[in-house]
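Encode chain A's predicted structure.
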Amino acid sequence: MILVIGGAASGKLDYVKSLGYSDSSISDGFIGEEPVVYNLQALVAKDPEKAPGYYDELVGKEIVICDEVGSGIIPATREMRDAREATGRLCNRLAISADSVIRLVSGIPVKIK
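Encoded structure for chain A:
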């Protein structure tokens, strides 16, 4: 599995598409049959308590794409803080298991792992 992370509008989706994936192979904000999961942070935000349970399904995907959530302004509401915490913890677990971790910075992929 490849974990692709980066800030909002950093070029994550364009990068993954440059690897040969099309819209039909990408699920957006949910875990489907597609080999790529995009917007992991949106999935977790729906119910942060379920985040640990997504691990087994996600580690079996080809690519997981998530906004970086640990930088920036601290969210104003408890719900938003819980979602950010759950997303960060899930990404930590995924990064450990990932074959590769790529961070997008201004559209430039930087291999972390």
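The radius of gyration is 13 Å.
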